[in-house]
Amino acid sequence: MGRVTERRRVLRIRDGAVSTRPDTLVAEEPLEIRLNGRPLAITMRTPGDDFALAAGFLVSEGVLAAASDLRNIVYCAGATSDGSNTYNVVDVSTAPGVVLPEFGLERNVYTSSSCGLCGKASLDAVRTTTRWPIADTPPVRVTPGLLACLPERLRAAQRVFDRTGGLHAAALFTEDGELLDTREDVGRHNAVDKLVGRALQNGDLPLSRTILMVSGRASFELAQKAVMAGVPVLAAVSAPSSLAVDLAAETGLTLVGFLRGGSMNVYAGEDRIALPEAAPGTEPASRS
């Protein structure tokens, strides 16, 4: 699929000089996700990795937990009058015996590129449906110095951002800071879904020894997706929302925000942060 970027004519003004030129923009198109032939959700996304996006979305919804839960994913006829394939509709078929959660498949959730799963803001729902409670996973310890290196490593992996300036990114790192995978999309939650979907397809769930790094803020939806995939540490370059912090505290997720240079705020799960020993004569860092 070669629709990640598009070209548009722009009027450019620089220090009083006016010119016209083509500009490269990030593409944004709707993707309808169907589950076993029935419409489930519509999300605005950057085309590419659509199957992984759909699979990751269904992990966060509690539908899929392993590659064996997935029978196949296919593109199907789009919404054009002639019935041609627009490559904007995917149908996910689950394997026989997969029990679906109790939600109405006719809800046709609209997921924008900025809001994530609007309206699904239940802490109890996430806590009770996750297959891999973070508190039960092997302990992961990361240093502030390692976390401080991640934004630059994420930025260096953003290939399309360099051409457009209009994409968010999400990356998975090992607890030692090794980059495992990175995905870009017009929506932060879509980039995370693409990461999680790839992990599901590769048989790598749960992601219990990884760090999820995201550009921008950490919303409830991103914290939800991290918890549902078994990720123990979520780091963001900007602020978390109050509900994201509540969810992190409820589930044991380590949530780091405003990760810029050597500065960061740890909002929950500070027990996974390996703080340096206090120098003689100084007060130790508080964990309260």
From TrEMBL:
<dbReference type="GO" id="GO:0005737">
    <property type="term" value="C:cytoplasm"/>
</dbReference>
<protein>
    <recommendedName>
        <fullName>Sulfur carrier protein FdhD</fullName>
    </recommendedName>
</protein>
<comment type="function">
    <text>Required for formate dehydrogenase (FDH) activity. Acts as a sulfur carrier protein that transfers sulfur from IscS to the molybdenum cofactor prior to its insertion into FDH.</text>
</comment>
<keyword id="KW-0501">Molybdenum cofactor biosynthesis</keyword>
<keyword id="KW-0963">Cytoplasm</keyword>
<dbReference type="GO" id="GO:0097163">
    <property type="term" value="F:sulfur carrier activity"/>
</dbReference>
<comment type="similarity">
    <text>Belongs to the FdhD family.</text>
</comment>
<dbReference type="InterPro" id="IPR016193">
    <property type="entry name" value="Cytidine_deaminase-like"/>
</dbReference>
<dbReference type="Pfam" id="PF02634">
    <property type="entry name" value="FdhD-NarQ"/>
</dbReference>
<dbReference type="GO" id="GO:0006777">
    <property type="term" value="P:Mo-molybdopterin cofactor biosynthetic process"/>
</dbReference>
<dbReference type="InterPro" id="IPR003786">
    <property type="entry name" value="FdhD"/>
</dbReference>
<dbReference type="GO" id="GO:0016783">
    <property type="term" value="F:sulfurtransferase activity"/>
</dbReference>
<feature type="active site" description="Cysteine persulfide intermediate">
    <location>
        <position position="115"/>
    </location>
</feature>
